[in-house]
Amino acid sequence: METTSPTSPRSRSGPGIIARLERLEGWSLSYRFIAIIGLGFLFTFYDIFDINVSFIQTCVELKKGCTPETALNSLPLPVVLNLVGYVIGTLVLSPIADKIGRRNMLLITMLITGLGSLYNAFAPDYANFVIARVITGVGIGADLAIVNTYVNEVAPRKARAKFTTMIFINSALGALAGIWLGLILTTAKENWPLGLPFAQASPSFDNGWRWMYGIGAILALVAILLRFELPESPRWLIGQSRMDEADAIVRQMEQRALKRGELAEPDYDIPQEAVTPPSPVPYTTLFTNPLYRRRILVLFALWFIGYITVYSYASGFTSVLSALKYPPPEAGVIAAVGTFGFVGMTILMTFIVELLERRYWLPIAAVVTLIGAVLIAAAGSTIAIAFIGSILIFAGFNMWVSPTYAMSAESFPTRARTSGFALVDGVGHVGGGIGVLAIAPVLPHMSTLGALMLISSFLVVAAIIAQFTPHTRGRNLDHISP
User: Fold this and answer.
1) Alpha-carbon separation of residue 45 from 51, 170, 172, 219 (angstroms)
2) 239: in domain
3) Would the keyword Coiled coil be found if you checked this record's keyword annotation (predicted)?
C-alpha cells in the first residue's frame, strides 16, 4: 500500500498527487496554519464590523451637520464604496492568485487592507475617510476569495466546510471585537443595559474611532508576518507543472495523516483538466463553459441578495436602530450583545456543518434571522428580549456564510477557482451596498417590525435561490468542477 513514500511515476504525476491529496481524511497541515489564516480573517471581519457602532462618532466629527439620529443617512456612501472596493479588488487581484499563487497574493491583499485601515485612522475629513474605506475594501475583497480558495484546496474532502467554518470562527471574533471596541471607545458612559458604565467617549475623547482603525492596522501587520509561514497550495503548484514542490508538500501531509492511522489507496480517477494550467485570463475558462456560466449566475444571485441582509445588519445595525428612535448607546449595546450569537453559532457550526448539504443551511438561517427580528420588534422596553432577538439575528444572518463559502469555492476548477469565487462572492458584495443605499432612506418611516422584516426578507429570497446550487458535500473536488 502507498503510504509515506509514493515513488512510482503515476503517484508523482499531477493526477497522482491530487489523488493522494484527496484520500486524506483529516487536516494534514500544521494546525498552526489554521491559526495563521484565521488571524487574517479576524482582521478582515474586524474591519467589516468596526464601522457598525463607531460610525456615529465618525460622522459627527467629520461631516458637518451629522447627528446620531441622522448618521444613517450618511452611512450608505462609505459602505457602498467600501464594497465597490471589494469588487475592484476581487476582480483584479483574484485572477492574479490563479497565476502567481495563493500564498503570494495573501501577503499582498493583507498589506493593502492594513494600509487602508491606517489611512482611515488618520483621515483628516469625510472624503478621505471614504477613500480609505475603498482602499481597505480592495484588499478585503481579494483576501476573502483567496483565503476560501486556499482552505478549500488543502482541507480534507469530507470536511471542507468544517475547516472553512473553523477558520470562520475568527471572523466572528473579529466582528465581536469591532463592535465591542466601538461601544467602549466611541459611545458615552451609560448605566447597563442602556450602555456601558466604562465607555470612554467624552468631549475630551471624541476620536476613539481613530484608535479602532489604528488597532486594525496593527492586526494586519501581525497577519502579514505570520502568513510568510504558509505553504503554497499543492493543487496550484500542479497547475504550474511544479510537481516536485507539490509532491514534497503532499508527502508532509501524508506523514501527519499516518499518525492518525493507515491511509486509503488513492483513487486515480482524476480528470485531466485538473492539472491544466490557468489561462492568461482565467475568467475565459469560466465564461466559455456552460456549466460554470450557470453556476456563476445562480451563486452570484444568491450572494448578491443575501448580502443585502448581511450588510444591513453587519455595518448598519446600530445606525438602523438609532434611526428607529433607539438611543445610540442602547442601540450599540443591542448590536454588541448580538455578536455573541455570531460567535456561538459559528462554533456550533464547526460540529454540525457537514451533516447537511451546503444549500440546506440557508433556509434555516433565514428562519432564525426572522425570529430574531420579531423578538426585537416585540421587546418594547424589555431589553432582555431585545438582546435575545439580536443574538438570533447575528446567529442567523451568519449561519449560512461559511457553508456557502465552501460551496462557492468547490463550484469552480483549480485553474480558475479564485476567479470564480471572485465573480460570485466578490461581485455579490455589491448587493450589500445597493441594499443599504436603497433601503436606508425608508427605514426611519417604518415600524421596528416592518424595518427589520424588510432587511431580513432578502435572506429568504437567497434561501430559495440556494436550492438551485450544486451538490458538493463530500465529493472529490475535481469531480465537482473538472
Assistant:
1) 11, 8, 7, 11
2) yes
3) no
Distance CA 235, CA 347 (A): 29
User: Torsion angle of alpha carbons 113, 114, 119, 122, nearest 10°?
Assistant: 140
CATH (domain of 73): 1.20.1250.20
Which amino acid, one-letter code, is at 203?
P
Residue 2 inside a domain? The answer is no
The grid coordinates of residue 148 equal 476560501
203 preceded by cis ω (within 30°)? no
Sign of CA dihedral 312, 313, 317, 321: positive
Domain range for 15 = 9-261+271-480
In a domain, 251, yes or no: yes
Give the pLDDT confidence score for residue 1 in this predicted structure.
Answer: 43
The answer to whether 15 and 263 have CB atoms below 8 angstroms apart is no
Residue 128 forms part of a structural domain: yes
* Contact (CB, 8 A) for 278 and 334: no
Assigned C-alpha cell, 335:
448590536
pLDDT at position 6 is 53
Nearest C-alpha neighbor of 359 from the set 419, 299, 430, 413: 299
The model's pLDDT over 147-191, given as tens digits with 9 standing for 90+, comes to 999 999 999 988 999 999 999 899 889 988 998 999 899 988 988
Q: Is 77 helix (H, G, I), strand (E, B) or coil?
A: helix
Taking a C-beta distance cutoff of 8 angstroms, is the pair 207, 129 a contact? no
**How would DSSP label each residue in 362-377?**
HHHHHHHHHHHHHHHH
The answer to whether the Cα torsion of 91, 93, 97, 98 is positive or negative is: positive
* Of residues 205, 267, 220, the one with CA closest to residue 15: 267
3 state DSSP class of 201: strand
What confidence score (pLDDT) does residue 44 get? 84
First vs last C-alpha separation in the chain: 27
Are 478 and 271 in contact by the 8 Å Cβ rule? The answer is: yes
* The three cell numbers locating residue 358: 451546503
**C-alpha distances out from residue 322 to 72, 176, 185, 319, 375, Å:** 8, 20, 18, 5, 17
Q: Which residue stretches of the chain have pLDDT < 70?
A: 1-9
Rg of the chain over CA atoms, in angstroms?
Answer: 22
User: 147, 261 in Cβ contact below 8 A?
Assistant: no
Question: C-alpha cell of 224?
Answer: 502579514
With a CB cutoff of 8 Å and minimum separation 6, the contacts of 173 are: 42, 343
Which grid cell is 258?
499516518
User: Is the separation of the CB atoms in 331 and 187 below 8 Å?
Assistant: no
Kindly write down the DSSP assignment for every residue of 123-148, as one continuous string. Answer: --SHHHHHHHHHHHHHHHHHHHHHHH
- Asked if residues 393 and 479 have their Cβ atoms less than 8 Å apart, the reply is no
Q: What is the pTM of this model?
A: 0.85
Rounded CA-CA distance 347/372 in Å is: 19
What total number of domains does the chain contain?
1
